[in-house]
Design a protein that fits this description.
The protein is built from 3 helices and 6 strands. The protein has a 3-stranded mixed beta sheet. The protein starts with a helix and ends in a 6-residue tail after the last helix. A hairpin with a 3-residue loop joins strand 4 and strand 5. By secondary structure, it is α+β, with helices and mostly antiparallel strands.
């Protein structure tokens, strides 16, 4: 069902989220990249992350998992290469992940566009009402 966009959208709606702008992050599922599998499912509504970070999964997947990156301009998946074994001298070779943009936002997301931004705006409105009540004399200084 994770490959079906309509199912993903129904899940998002059940959680009270807007299916047009929301996405599902699903972890702990190995993505078999070596077999051609993609971490992007449901026509871009669902992203599978971190599957394969465990060394036990790396033979199945061919990679060391994914990290989801989300900022004000885009969503991306960082694909991690398997880790090199720890050397006797304590050193270890790490590889820079391959970054793949999975969605570019139509307009830059601002703080006011987030849930926290809505909460902050509500607080601003309440403070304005408080100042207004004070100026009108409805509230007296104690």
């Amino acid at each position: 069902m994770i490959n079906r966009k309509d199912i993903c959208e129904k899940i998002l709606a059940e959680f009270g989220l807007d299916p047009k702008t929301s996405h599902i992050l699903n972890g702990h599922v190995p993505v078999k990249i070596k077999d051609g599998e993609s971490p992007v499912k449901g026509e871009g509504k669902l992203f599978i992350i971190d599957g394969g970070i465990s060394k036990a999964y790396q033979k199945q997947t061919g990679i060391a998992g994914y990290t989801f990156i989300f900022n004000s301009r885009f969503m991306a998946l960082a694909e991690h290469k398997p880790y090199s074994p720890l050397q006797e001298d304590g050193s270890q070779v790490f590889h820079t992940p391959v970054l793949r943009t999975v969605k570019t936002l139509e307009k830059r997301m601002l703080v006011r566009d987030t849930d926290q931004g809505e909460e902050l705006q509500q607080e601003v409105e309440e403070l304005k009402e408080l100042v207004k009540a004070y100026r009108n004399g409805d509230l007296k200084e104690q």
